[in-house]
Amino acid sequence: MPDAMDVDTETPSSMPGAFEIPKANGANGTDVDGDAEAPEPPPHKSNPASPVQDAPPTPEQAEAFKTLGNKYYKAKEYKKAIEEYTKAVEAQPSSATYLSNRAAAYISAGLYINALDDCTRADELDPNNEKILLRLARIYTNLGRAQEALDTYDRIQPPPSAKDTAPAKAMLQHISVAEDALKNGTTGSMALHALDQADKLLGLGAPKPRKWQLMRGEAYLKMGNVNALGDAQNVAMSLLRNNSQDPEALVLRGRALYSQGDNEKAIQHFRQAVNCDPDYRDAVKYLRMVQKLDRMKADGNTEYKAGHWDAAIEKYTEALEVDPLNRGTNSKLLQNRALCRVQLKDYKGAISDCERALSLDPTYTKAKKTKASALGQSGKWEEAVREFKELQEQEPQDAGIAKQLRNAELELKKSKRKDYYKILGVEKDADENQIKKAYRKAAIVHHPDKNPDDEDAEERFKDIGEAYECLSDPQKRARYDSGEDLMDPMEGFGGGGMGGGMQIDPEILMQMFGAQMGGGGRGGGGFHSFGGGMPGGRRGAAQGFPGGFQF
Protein backbone atom coordinates (compact mmCIF):
# COMPACT_ATOMS: atom_id res chain seq x y z
CA MET A 1 0.00 0.00 0.00
CA PRO A 2 1.59 3.31 -1.01
CA ASP A 3 2.37 5.65 1.86
CA ALA A 4 1.64 8.77 -0.20
CA MET A 5 1.58 12.26 1.27
CA ASP A 6 -1.96 13.26 2.20
CA VAL A 7 -3.47 16.60 3.18
CA ASP A 8 -2.89 17.28 6.85
CA THR A 9 -6.30 17.47 8.51
CA GLU A 10 -4.87 19.87 11.04
CA THR A 11 -3.88 22.35 8.33
CA PRO A 12 -5.90 25.61 8.58
CA SER A 13 -8.27 26.14 5.71
CA SER A 14 -6.31 29.18 4.65
CA MET A 15 -3.23 27.05 4.00
CA PRO A 16 -2.30 26.16 0.40
CA GLY A 17 -2.63 22.62 -0.90
CA ALA A 18 -0.36 19.72 0.01
CA PHE A 19 2.90 18.80 -1.71
CA GLU A 20 4.60 15.38 -1.87
CA ILE A 21 7.95 14.43 -0.34
CA PRO A 22 9.69 11.40 -1.91
CA LYS A 23 10.62 8.42 0.27
CA ALA A 24 14.17 8.16 1.55
CA ASN A 25 13.78 4.42 1.65
CA GLY A 26 10.79 2.80 0.04
CA ALA A 27 10.80 -0.03 2.58
CA ASN A 28 10.66 2.36 5.49
CA GLY A 29 7.65 4.45 4.52
CA THR A 30 9.50 7.63 5.41
CA ASP A 31 7.36 10.12 3.54
CA VAL A 32 5.89 12.90 5.66
CA ASP A 33 2.66 14.91 5.81
CA GLY A 34 3.05 18.52 4.69
CA ASP A 35 2.10 21.47 2.52
CA ALA A 36 3.73 22.86 -0.59
CA GLU A 37 3.55 26.41 0.76
CA ALA A 38 3.10 27.77 4.24
CA PRO A 39 3.76 30.97 6.16
CA GLU A 40 7.33 31.53 7.19
CA PRO A 41 7.89 30.33 10.76
CA PRO A 42 8.32 32.96 13.45
CA PRO A 43 11.82 33.88 14.56
CA HIS A 44 13.35 31.21 16.78
CA LYS A 45 14.36 33.81 19.30
CA SER A 46 11.66 36.11 20.54
CA ASN A 47 12.21 39.83 20.58
CA PRO A 48 13.33 40.82 24.08
CA ALA A 49 11.30 43.98 23.82
CA SER A 50 8.14 42.05 23.04
CA PRO A 51 5.71 41.78 25.95
CA VAL A 52 4.48 38.36 24.68
CA GLN A 53 7.89 36.61 24.42
CA ASP A 54 6.84 33.75 26.72
CA ALA A 55 3.56 33.06 24.97
CA PRO A 56 3.29 29.48 23.61
CA PRO A 57 3.35 29.02 19.84
CA THR A 58 0.01 29.17 18.14
CA PRO A 59 -1.33 26.29 16.00
CA GLU A 60 -0.46 28.36 12.95
CA GLN A 61 3.13 28.71 14.15
CA ALA A 62 3.33 24.93 14.84
CA GLU A 63 2.12 24.30 11.34
CA ALA A 64 4.80 26.63 10.00
CA PHE A 65 7.47 24.64 11.89
CA LYS A 66 6.15 21.46 10.32
CA THR A 67 6.17 23.00 6.85
CA LEU A 68 9.79 24.06 7.18
CA GLY A 69 10.60 20.59 8.48
CA ASN A 70 9.01 19.17 5.33
CA LYS A 71 11.25 21.32 3.16
CA TYR A 72 14.36 20.15 5.01
CA TYR A 73 13.15 16.57 4.77
CA LYS A 74 12.70 16.87 1.01
CA ALA A 75 16.24 18.25 0.76
CA LYS A 76 17.42 15.20 2.80
CA GLU A 77 18.64 17.43 5.60
CA TYR A 78 17.16 15.14 8.19
CA LYS A 79 18.83 16.65 11.23
CA LYS A 80 17.33 20.07 10.47
CA ALA A 81 14.00 18.46 9.64
CA ILE A 82 13.98 16.75 13.04
CA GLU A 83 14.69 20.09 14.75
CA GLU A 84 11.71 21.78 13.06
CA TYR A 85 9.38 18.83 13.66
CA THR A 86 10.44 18.87 17.31
CA LYS A 87 9.37 22.52 17.59
CA ALA A 88 6.03 21.57 16.07
CA VAL A 89 5.63 18.66 18.52
CA GLU A 90 6.51 20.88 21.47
CA ALA A 91 3.95 23.40 20.28
CA GLN A 92 1.26 20.73 19.74
CA PRO A 93 2.19 17.59 21.80
CA SER A 94 -1.12 15.92 21.03
CA SER A 95 -0.67 16.09 17.26
CA ALA A 96 -0.31 12.59 15.84
CA THR A 97 0.66 14.08 12.48
CA TYR A 98 3.66 15.98 13.84
CA LEU A 99 4.86 12.91 15.74
CA SER A 100 4.46 10.73 12.66
CA ASN A 101 6.36 13.20 10.49
CA ARG A 102 9.22 13.35 12.98
CA ALA A 103 9.23 9.54 13.05
CA ALA A 104 9.72 9.57 9.27
CA ALA A 105 12.72 11.89 9.66
CA TYR A 106 14.13 9.70 12.41
CA ILE A 107 13.85 6.66 10.12
CA SER A 108 15.72 8.41 7.32
CA ALA A 109 18.41 9.45 9.81
CA GLY A 110 18.75 5.83 10.97
CA LEU A 111 17.37 6.60 14.45
CA TYR A 112 14.87 3.75 14.56
CA ILE A 113 14.34 3.65 18.32
CA ASN A 114 13.41 7.36 18.33
CA ALA A 115 11.14 6.72 15.37
CA LEU A 116 9.44 3.88 17.22
CA ASP A 117 8.78 6.10 20.25
CA ASP A 118 7.17 8.80 18.13
CA CYS A 119 5.13 6.42 16.01
CA THR A 120 3.88 4.54 19.08
CA ARG A 121 2.70 7.82 20.62
CA ALA A 122 1.09 8.82 17.34
CA ASP A 123 -0.75 5.48 17.25
CA GLU A 124 -2.05 6.06 20.78
CA LEU A 125 -3.35 9.46 19.74
CA ASP A 126 -4.88 8.22 16.48
CA PRO A 127 -5.35 4.41 16.79
CA ASN A 128 -6.95 3.74 13.44
CA ASN A 129 -4.79 5.92 11.25
CA GLU A 130 -3.80 3.72 8.32
CA LYS A 131 -0.73 5.74 7.49
CA ILE A 132 0.60 5.75 11.03
CA LEU A 133 0.03 1.99 11.35
CA LEU A 134 1.84 1.34 8.08
CA ARG A 135 4.79 3.42 9.22
CA LEU A 136 4.81 1.73 12.64
CA ALA A 137 4.87 -1.73 11.03
CA ARG A 138 7.81 -0.74 8.84
CA ILE A 139 9.71 0.56 11.86
CA TYR A 140 9.19 -2.77 13.59
CA THR A 141 10.55 -4.52 10.49
CA ASN A 142 13.58 -2.23 10.37
CA LEU A 143 14.33 -3.12 13.98
CA GLY A 144 14.02 -6.88 13.38
CA ARG A 145 10.73 -7.22 15.26
CA ALA A 146 8.94 -9.10 12.50
CA GLN A 147 6.07 -10.55 14.53
CA GLU A 148 5.15 -7.14 15.95
CA ALA A 149 5.27 -5.74 12.41
CA LEU A 150 2.85 -8.40 11.16
CA ASP A 151 0.55 -7.85 14.14
CA THR A 152 0.46 -4.15 13.27
CA TYR A 153 -0.25 -4.88 9.60
CA ASP A 154 -3.21 -6.99 10.75
CA ARG A 155 -4.78 -3.87 12.29
CA ILE A 156 -4.89 -2.07 8.95
CA GLN A 157 -8.19 -2.12 7.08
CA PRO A 158 -8.37 -2.74 4.24
CA PRO A 159 -5.38 -5.12 4.54
CA PRO A 160 -2.05 -3.83 3.19
CA SER A 161 -0.56 -5.20 -0.01
CA ALA A 162 1.62 -8.30 -0.17
CA LYS A 163 4.50 -6.05 -1.12
CA ASP A 164 4.15 -4.17 2.16
CA THR A 165 4.10 -7.28 4.33
CA ALA A 166 6.68 -9.33 2.37
CA PRO A 167 9.83 -8.10 4.23
CA ALA A 168 8.40 -8.89 7.66
CA LYS A 169 7.15 -12.30 6.56
CA ALA A 170 10.52 -13.20 4.99
CA MET A 171 12.35 -12.04 8.10
CA LEU A 172 10.14 -14.16 10.35
CA GLN A 173 10.71 -17.18 8.12
CA HIS A 174 14.51 -16.78 8.24
CA ILE A 175 14.50 -16.54 12.03
CA SER A 176 12.27 -19.62 12.25
CA VAL A 177 14.75 -21.56 10.09
CA ALA A 178 17.64 -20.42 12.29
CA GLU A 179 15.84 -21.46 15.48
CA ASP A 180 15.05 -24.88 14.03
CA ALA A 181 18.66 -25.36 12.88
CA LEU A 182 19.97 -24.55 16.35
CA LYS A 183 17.50 -26.90 17.97
CA ASN A 184 17.75 -29.86 15.61
CA GLY A 185 20.72 -29.30 13.30
CA THR A 186 24.14 -30.89 13.71
CA THR A 187 26.10 -27.77 12.77
CA GLY A 188 25.59 -24.05 13.10
CA SER A 189 26.26 -23.13 9.46
CA MET A 190 22.60 -23.33 8.41
CA ALA A 191 21.55 -21.12 11.32
CA LEU A 192 24.22 -18.58 10.42
CA HIS A 193 23.02 -18.49 6.79
CA ALA A 194 19.43 -17.89 7.88
CA LEU A 195 20.52 -15.13 10.27
CA ASP A 196 22.54 -13.49 7.50
CA GLN A 197 19.44 -13.41 5.32
CA ALA A 198 17.39 -11.87 8.13
CA ASP A 199 20.10 -9.24 8.71
CA LYS A 200 19.72 -8.02 5.14
CA LEU A 201 16.13 -7.03 5.88
CA LEU A 202 17.02 -4.75 8.79
CA GLY A 203 16.96 -1.01 8.36
CA LEU A 204 20.18 0.59 7.19
CA GLY A 205 22.34 1.05 10.27
CA ALA A 206 19.77 -0.55 12.58
CA PRO A 207 21.21 -2.47 15.55
CA LYS A 208 20.93 -6.24 15.34
CA PRO A 209 18.35 -7.56 17.81
CA ARG A 210 19.86 -8.97 20.98
CA LYS A 211 18.01 -12.25 20.42
CA TRP A 212 19.60 -12.61 16.99
CA GLN A 213 23.06 -11.94 18.40
CA LEU A 214 22.60 -14.62 21.04
CA MET A 215 21.41 -17.04 18.35
CA ARG A 216 24.50 -16.21 16.27
CA GLY A 217 26.72 -16.90 19.27
CA GLU A 218 24.94 -20.22 19.80
CA ALA A 219 25.54 -21.13 16.15
CA TYR A 220 29.26 -20.42 16.50
CA LEU A 221 29.39 -22.61 19.61
CA LYS A 222 27.66 -25.36 17.68
CA MET A 223 30.30 -25.18 14.94
CA GLY A 224 32.98 -25.61 17.61
CA ASN A 225 36.15 -24.92 15.60
CA VAL A 226 38.83 -22.50 16.80
CA ASN A 227 37.70 -19.57 14.63
CA ALA A 228 34.03 -20.10 15.43
CA LEU A 229 34.72 -20.12 19.17
CA GLY A 230 36.56 -16.83 18.78
CA ASP A 231 33.56 -15.42 16.91
CA ALA A 232 31.26 -16.58 19.73
CA GLN A 233 33.43 -14.68 22.20
CA ASN A 234 33.25 -11.56 20.03
CA VAL A 235 29.45 -11.73 19.99
CA ALA A 236 29.36 -12.10 23.77
CA MET A 237 31.78 -9.22 24.32
CA SER A 238 29.71 -6.98 22.04
CA LEU A 239 26.63 -7.66 24.17
CA LEU A 240 28.54 -7.20 27.43
CA ARG A 241 29.80 -3.81 26.30
CA ASN A 242 26.17 -2.72 26.18
CA ASN A 243 25.32 -4.40 29.48
CA SER A 244 28.04 -5.99 31.59
CA GLN A 245 25.39 -7.65 33.76
CA ASP A 246 23.63 -9.47 30.90
CA PRO A 247 23.34 -13.06 32.23
CA GLU A 248 22.76 -14.62 28.81
CA ALA A 249 25.81 -12.88 27.34
CA LEU A 250 27.88 -13.95 30.37
CA VAL A 251 26.83 -17.57 29.88
CA LEU A 252 27.57 -17.34 26.15
CA ARG A 253 31.12 -16.16 26.81
CA GLY A 254 31.54 -18.71 29.59
CA ARG A 255 30.55 -21.51 27.23
CA ALA A 256 33.01 -20.26 24.62
CA LEU A 257 35.79 -20.21 27.21
CA TYR A 258 34.76 -23.67 28.41
CA SER A 259 34.87 -25.03 24.85
CA GLN A 260 38.35 -23.55 24.48
CA GLY A 261 39.46 -25.42 27.61
CA ASP A 262 39.68 -22.38 29.89
CA ASN A 263 37.44 -23.82 32.59
CA GLU A 264 38.61 -21.47 35.33
CA LYS A 265 37.47 -18.33 33.49
CA ALA A 266 34.33 -20.12 32.33
CA ILE A 267 33.36 -20.82 35.94
CA GLN A 268 33.90 -17.15 36.80
CA HIS A 269 31.45 -16.09 34.06
CA PHE A 270 28.84 -18.65 35.09
CA ARG A 271 29.07 -17.51 38.71
CA GLN A 272 28.65 -13.88 37.66
CA ALA A 273 25.60 -14.83 35.60
CA VAL A 274 24.07 -16.60 38.62
CA ASN A 275 24.72 -13.51 40.73
CA CYS A 276 22.93 -11.38 38.14
CA ASP A 277 19.99 -13.76 37.89
CA PRO A 278 19.85 -16.58 40.46
CA ASP A 279 16.90 -18.12 38.62
CA TYR A 280 18.69 -18.36 35.26
CA ARG A 281 18.79 -22.14 34.79
CA ASP A 282 21.44 -22.26 32.07
CA ALA A 283 23.91 -20.41 34.29
CA VAL A 284 23.33 -22.85 37.16
CA LYS A 285 23.48 -25.87 34.81
CA TYR A 286 26.78 -24.95 33.19
CA LEU A 287 28.36 -23.89 36.48
CA ARG A 288 27.61 -27.26 38.07
CA MET A 289 28.64 -29.20 34.96
CA VAL A 290 32.06 -27.54 34.60
CA GLN A 291 32.76 -27.85 38.32
CA LYS A 292 31.92 -31.56 38.17
CA LEU A 293 34.08 -32.07 35.09
CA ASP A 294 37.03 -30.28 36.67
CA ARG A 295 36.69 -32.36 39.82
CA MET A 296 36.62 -35.67 37.92
CA LYS A 297 39.53 -34.65 35.71
CA ALA A 298 41.54 -33.73 38.80
CA ASP A 299 40.74 -37.13 40.33
CA GLY A 300 42.01 -38.83 37.18
CA ASN A 301 45.21 -36.77 37.25
CA THR A 302 45.80 -37.75 40.88
CA GLU A 303 45.48 -41.44 40.02
CA TYR A 304 47.79 -40.97 37.03
CA LYS A 305 50.51 -39.32 39.11
CA ALA A 306 50.26 -42.17 41.60
CA GLY A 307 50.77 -44.70 38.81
CA HIS A 308 47.28 -46.17 39.24
CA TRP A 309 46.69 -46.51 35.51
CA ASP A 310 43.45 -48.51 35.62
CA ALA A 311 41.92 -46.19 38.21
CA ALA A 312 42.96 -43.14 36.17
CA ILE A 313 41.37 -44.60 33.04
CA GLU A 314 38.14 -45.13 34.96
CA LYS A 315 38.09 -41.51 36.16
CA TYR A 316 38.84 -40.09 32.72
CA THR A 317 36.15 -42.29 31.18
CA GLU A 318 33.57 -41.03 33.67
CA ALA A 319 34.62 -37.44 32.97
CA LEU A 320 34.12 -37.99 29.23
CA GLU A 321 30.46 -38.77 29.90
CA VAL A 322 29.76 -35.42 31.63
CA ASP A 323 29.59 -33.36 28.42
CA PRO A 324 30.07 -35.35 25.20
CA LEU A 325 29.77 -32.16 23.12
CA ASN A 326 32.77 -30.38 24.62
CA ARG A 327 35.62 -30.71 22.13
CA GLY A 328 38.40 -28.92 23.99
CA THR A 329 38.15 -30.64 27.37
CA ASN A 330 37.26 -34.06 25.96
CA SER A 331 40.28 -34.04 23.65
CA LYS A 332 42.51 -33.53 26.72
CA LEU A 333 40.72 -36.28 28.64
CA LEU A 334 41.23 -38.69 25.73
CA GLN A 335 44.91 -37.76 25.51
CA ASN A 336 45.35 -38.39 29.23
CA ARG A 337 43.59 -41.73 28.96
CA ALA A 338 45.82 -42.65 26.03
CA LEU A 339 48.90 -42.05 28.19
CA CYS A 340 47.50 -44.47 30.77
CA ARG A 341 46.90 -47.09 28.08
CA VAL A 342 50.50 -46.72 26.88
CA GLN A 343 51.68 -47.47 30.42
CA LEU A 344 49.52 -50.60 30.37
CA LYS A 345 50.92 -51.51 26.91
CA ASP A 346 47.43 -51.22 25.46
CA TYR A 347 48.83 -49.54 22.37
CA LYS A 348 45.79 -50.18 20.22
CA GLY A 349 43.54 -48.47 22.78
CA ALA A 350 46.00 -45.60 23.14
CA ILE A 351 46.11 -45.02 19.38
CA SER A 352 42.31 -45.08 19.23
CA ASP A 353 42.04 -42.48 22.03
CA CYS A 354 44.56 -40.22 20.29
CA GLU A 355 42.66 -40.42 17.02
CA ARG A 356 39.45 -39.48 18.80
CA ALA A 357 41.22 -36.58 20.50
CA LEU A 358 42.53 -35.35 17.13
CA SER A 359 39.08 -35.62 15.57
CA LEU A 360 37.91 -33.16 18.25
CA ASP A 361 40.99 -30.93 18.00
CA PRO A 362 43.12 -31.49 14.87
CA THR A 363 45.78 -29.07 16.19
CA TYR A 364 46.40 -30.98 19.44
CA THR A 365 50.16 -31.62 19.28
CA LYS A 366 50.35 -33.70 22.46
CA ALA A 367 47.86 -36.21 21.08
CA LYS A 368 49.89 -36.47 17.86
CA LYS A 369 53.05 -37.18 19.87
CA THR A 370 51.35 -39.81 21.99
CA LYS A 371 49.90 -41.49 18.92
CA ALA A 372 53.29 -41.61 17.20
CA SER A 373 54.91 -43.01 20.33
CA ALA A 374 52.20 -45.67 20.75
CA LEU A 375 52.57 -46.68 17.09
CA GLY A 376 56.27 -47.19 17.60
CA GLN A 377 55.96 -49.10 20.84
CA SER A 378 53.41 -51.36 19.19
CA GLY A 379 56.04 -52.21 16.58
CA LYS A 380 54.73 -49.96 13.80
CA TRP A 381 57.85 -47.87 13.51
CA GLU A 382 57.36 -46.95 9.88
CA GLU A 383 54.02 -45.31 10.78
CA ALA A 384 55.62 -43.73 13.84
CA VAL A 385 58.39 -42.18 11.72
CA ARG A 386 55.78 -40.83 9.31
CA GLU A 387 53.80 -39.27 12.18
CA PHE A 388 56.91 -37.66 13.70
CA LYS A 389 57.94 -36.27 10.31
CA GLU A 390 54.53 -34.62 9.92
CA LEU A 391 54.87 -33.21 13.42
CA GLN A 392 58.31 -31.84 12.66
CA GLU A 393 56.97 -30.07 9.56
CA GLN A 394 54.25 -28.48 11.70
CA GLU A 395 56.57 -27.64 14.61
CA PRO A 396 60.05 -27.14 13.06
CA GLN A 397 61.34 -25.28 16.14
CA ASP A 398 60.49 -28.07 18.57
CA ALA A 399 63.78 -29.78 19.42
CA GLY A 400 61.93 -32.50 21.32
CA ILE A 401 60.11 -33.63 18.18
CA ALA A 402 63.39 -33.74 16.23
CA LYS A 403 64.87 -35.97 18.93
CA GLN A 404 61.83 -38.26 18.93
CA LEU A 405 62.05 -38.51 15.14
CA ARG A 406 65.72 -39.56 15.28
CA ASN A 407 64.88 -42.14 17.92
CA ALA A 408 61.99 -43.48 15.84
CA GLU A 409 64.22 -43.75 12.77
CA LEU A 410 66.76 -45.70 14.82
CA GLU A 411 64.03 -47.96 16.17
CA LEU A 412 62.87 -48.55 12.61
CA LYS A 413 66.35 -49.78 11.71
CA LYS A 414 66.42 -51.94 14.82
CA SER A 415 63.03 -53.40 13.94
CA LYS A 416 64.41 -54.72 10.66
CA ARG A 417 67.08 -56.86 12.34
CA LYS A 418 66.46 -59.99 14.39
CA ASP A 419 64.19 -59.28 17.33
CA TYR A 420 65.82 -61.21 20.14
CA TYR A 421 63.00 -60.43 22.54
CA LYS A 422 60.47 -61.81 20.13
CA ILE A 423 62.61 -64.89 19.45
CA LEU A 424 62.65 -65.71 23.17
CA GLY A 425 59.05 -64.60 23.67
CA VAL A 426 59.76 -62.02 26.40
CA GLU A 427 58.99 -58.34 26.89
CA LYS A 428 61.70 -55.75 26.43
CA ASP A 429 61.79 -55.08 30.17
CA ALA A 430 62.21 -58.77 31.06
CA ASP A 431 64.70 -59.47 33.87
CA GLU A 432 67.57 -61.98 33.86
CA ASN A 433 65.53 -64.86 35.30
CA GLN A 434 62.71 -64.37 32.80
CA ILE A 435 65.19 -64.39 29.93
CA LYS A 436 66.89 -67.54 31.22
CA LYS A 437 63.60 -69.41 31.66
CA ALA A 438 62.40 -68.35 28.24
CA TYR A 439 65.67 -69.49 26.67
CA ARG A 440 65.54 -72.95 28.27
CA LYS A 441 61.95 -73.46 27.22
CA ALA A 442 62.56 -72.33 23.63
CA ALA A 443 65.77 -74.34 23.31
CA ILE A 444 63.97 -77.52 24.33
CA VAL A 445 61.03 -76.94 22.02
CA HIS A 446 63.11 -76.07 18.96
CA HIS A 447 66.14 -78.35 19.48
CA PRO A 448 67.00 -80.00 16.13
CA ASP A 449 67.09 -83.45 17.75
CA LYS A 450 63.44 -83.02 18.70
CA ASN A 451 62.50 -81.79 15.26
CA PRO A 452 64.30 -84.13 12.85
CA ASP A 453 61.83 -83.53 10.04
CA ASP A 454 61.88 -79.74 10.38
CA GLU A 455 64.53 -78.22 8.12
CA ASP A 456 64.19 -74.83 9.84
CA ALA A 457 64.63 -76.15 13.37
CA GLU A 458 68.41 -75.78 13.32
CA GLU A 459 68.18 -72.15 12.18
CA ARG A 460 65.61 -71.36 14.86
CA PHE A 461 67.76 -73.08 17.46
CA LYS A 462 70.71 -70.98 16.38
CA ASP A 463 68.64 -67.78 16.60
CA ILE A 464 67.54 -68.76 20.10
CA GLY A 465 71.17 -69.17 21.09
CA GLU A 466 72.11 -65.82 19.59
CA ALA A 467 69.24 -64.13 21.36
CA TYR A 468 70.18 -65.58 24.72
CA GLU A 469 73.85 -64.81 24.24
CA CYS A 470 73.02 -61.15 23.66
CA LEU A 471 70.24 -60.60 26.19
CA SER A 472 71.93 -62.48 29.02
CA ASP A 473 74.97 -60.21 28.83
CA PRO A 474 74.16 -56.74 30.29
CA GLN A 475 76.68 -54.92 28.09
CA LYS A 476 75.62 -56.60 24.87
CA ARG A 477 71.99 -56.16 25.76
CA ALA A 478 72.55 -52.46 26.40
CA ARG A 479 74.26 -52.06 23.03
CA TYR A 480 71.47 -54.00 21.33
CA ASP A 481 68.74 -51.97 23.04
CA SER A 482 70.38 -48.64 22.26
CA GLY A 483 71.09 -49.56 18.67
CA GLU A 484 74.82 -48.95 19.01
CA ASP A 485 75.48 -52.03 16.95
CA LEU A 486 73.56 -50.42 14.09
CA MET A 487 75.52 -47.20 14.34
CA ASP A 488 78.93 -48.95 14.25
CA PRO A 489 79.60 -50.39 10.75
CA MET A 490 82.21 -52.82 12.15
CA GLU A 491 79.69 -54.44 14.49
CA GLY A 492 78.48 -57.47 12.56
CA PHE A 493 79.76 -60.57 14.23
CA GLY A 494 77.60 -63.51 15.20
CA GLY A 495 74.29 -61.74 14.76
CA GLY A 496 74.81 -59.82 18.00
CA GLY A 497 76.46 -62.54 20.07
CA MET A 498 80.11 -63.58 19.88
CA GLY A 499 80.52 -67.03 21.38
CA GLY A 500 82.06 -67.60 24.80
CA GLY A 501 81.86 -64.06 26.13
CA MET A 502 84.13 -62.50 23.50
CA GLN A 503 85.02 -58.94 24.63
CA ILE A 504 87.75 -58.04 22.09
CA ASP A 505 86.97 -55.20 19.72
CA PRO A 506 86.43 -56.65 16.21
CA GLU A 507 88.67 -54.00 14.66
CA ILE A 508 91.57 -55.14 16.86
CA LEU A 509 90.95 -58.72 15.81
CA MET A 510 91.11 -57.68 12.20
CA GLN A 511 94.47 -56.04 12.76
CA MET A 512 95.78 -59.07 14.71
CA PHE A 513 94.84 -61.84 12.36
CA GLY A 514 94.24 -60.23 9.00
CA ALA A 515 93.35 -62.69 6.31
CA GLN A 516 93.48 -65.65 8.72
CA MET A 517 89.97 -64.72 9.79
CA GLY A 518 88.48 -66.35 6.74
CA GLY A 519 85.05 -64.74 6.22
CA GLY A 520 83.52 -62.28 8.60
CA GLY A 521 79.98 -63.45 8.25
CA ARG A 522 77.33 -63.69 10.89
CA GLY A 523 76.93 -66.91 12.88
CA GLY A 524 77.44 -69.92 10.62
CA GLY A 525 79.64 -68.05 8.08
CA GLY A 526 83.43 -67.93 8.26
CA PHE A 527 83.19 -68.13 12.03
CA HIS A 528 81.02 -71.21 12.11
CA SER A 529 83.46 -72.89 14.53
CA PHE A 530 83.14 -70.05 17.07
CA GLY A 531 80.15 -71.77 18.49
CA GLY A 532 77.56 -69.58 16.74
CA GLY A 533 76.70 -67.93 20.01
CA MET A 534 75.06 -71.12 21.34
CA PRO A 535 75.90 -71.59 25.03
CA GLY A 536 76.58 -75.19 25.86
CA GLY A 537 77.36 -76.03 22.22
CA ARG A 538 80.60 -77.52 20.88
CA ARG A 539 83.53 -75.10 21.17
CA GLY A 540 86.30 -76.24 18.84
CA ALA A 541 89.34 -74.16 17.93
CA ALA A 542 88.43 -71.44 15.48
CA GLN A 543 89.81 -72.10 12.07
CA GLY A 544 93.08 -70.22 11.72
CA PHE A 545 93.34 -69.42 15.47
CA PRO A 546 95.76 -70.96 18.01
CA GLY A 547 94.38 -73.94 19.87
CA GLY A 548 92.65 -73.09 23.14
CA PHE A 549 91.75 -69.51 22.10
CA GLN A 550 88.59 -68.94 24.11
CA PHE A 551 85.74 -66.91 22.63
From TrEMBL:
Pfam families: DnaJ, TPR_11, TPR_16, TPR_19
Residue stretches of each TPR repeat: 62-95, 247-280, 293-326, 331-364
Annotated region described as Disordered, given as residue ranges: 1-60
InterPro entries, A to Z: DnaJ_domain, DnaJ_domain_CS, J_dom_sf, SRC_co-chaperone, TPR-like_helical_dom_sf, TPR_rpt
Record keywords, A-Z: Chaperone, Repeat, TPR repeat
Residue ranges occupied by any J domain in the UniProt entry: 419-484
Gene3D superfamilies: DnaJ domain, Tetratricopeptide repeat domain
Name of the protein in question: J domain-containing protein
